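Continuing from the previous page...

OK, I double-checked the sequence for ATP-dependent RNA helicase RhlE against my notes and this is the correct one:
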Amino acid sequence: MSFDSLGLSEPLLRAVIEQGYTTPTPIQSQAIPAVLNGGDLLAGAQTGTGKTAGFTLPILQRLSETPAPAAGAKRPVRALILTPTRELAAQVEESVRTYGKYLKLKSTVMFGGVGINPQIDALRRGVDIVVATPGRLLDHMQQKTIDLSKLEILVLDEADRMLDMGFIHDIKRVLAKLPPKRQNLLFSATFSDEIKTLADSLLDKPALIEVARRNSTVEAIAQKIHPVDRDKKRELLTHLIRQNNWFQVLVFSRTKHGANRLAEQLTKDGISALAIHGNKSQSARTRALAEFKDNTLQVLVATDIAARGIDIDQLPHVVNFDLPNVPEDYVHRIGRTGRAGATGEAVSLVCVDEHQLLKDIERLIKRPIPQEVIAGFEPDPTQKPEPILRRSQGGGGARQGAPRQGAPKQANGGGRGPAKPAHGGNGGGGGNGSRSPKPVAAKTGGNGAAPRKPEGARPAGALLGGKPRSEGGGAGRRDTPRTGQRGR
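Thanks. Re-ran it with the corrected sequence; updated structure tokens here:
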């Protein structure tokens, strides 16, 4: 199958070909006709499957089929794409501009951490497509600087992550202000009970598409465990990077403090490294992402949610310096590599404290991960495990994952900065288990039990009901923005 068999117009096909793409991924081959058909869509697709182009291309096509407003008339906002993070919003809007370069449509992106006035100016001039994070969109709605009364298409991208980050009340406030007659597209990596509940309330007889088994790991990724003592991890990481001459290494740390400390230590070892997380300034985040994507920065150390939005087609190396507390996060992490048909490598440095976390991950992916002890870094068999301490999350409950050895016990907070613009639509082959779209009730979508939630996360009832959290309130969950600046 080729893109020209999907019913896309010549200007869109020209832009796609210019990006070097000829064959659609499974999510694209199914989602594009479904969206062009005009109905609602519930799509299960993980990052790296090409889902961004799966909805941006048909949205551009549908909007371009309507005549442009008369000269002097203001363009109404006709499509709204909501994303959980600033980085992802920046990439999606860049994808809209890349694929729509030969169309007479205008788009803009809005998120917090930057001045609101340029966004107001763009809206005043008129745009067809808005890509936004929930918090900043609500700012504009409250200030009446955006008019969504003519909205035709709504997209919730990475809806599962938005719910995990506590955005359900923001989403419900946005939905309450939208015109009832519109096309709704919901994309999610998993179909948890919360997602099914949201889909039930949002979608009308949606087509259902799943292109990858839930929580499946990409076969192109070589996974490996290196057992090591907890106080030798950094030395082993330095050894692996030097010995194998690794570049573009994405390293995951459990905490912001740990990410900072590791980046500083790697720099002292002569390896160029920067940390990215919610407490970093926007300029620091933007610089780190830009240098990493340009391959001038050797190592980027990130926390889980800060890594959302890092979309590099052929990222070769992912290292779990700390195993995640939630097994599903392991799948999200290693899915950053092995895209676009390329091979990738995911290495985990595992100390005695993390043996149970490793068992949970292997149970989830239904296979053992090969282990290799590196000479000179053999773990001490007499070392006893220490608990991965719990810490308060400012009203979100306690969870595992406090930094050891005197690290501060602050609640994670802060915002997000935009990624360096890069088209983010078409990555990677699309897994397995795909099926053709067909009209179904949303509540029948998905399969399997709901994923394990991080400790301290609210139950489904708390997410989907009850009183919204106040703007400017207490600290949020693991590595998410604090209430009052969530997703802005």
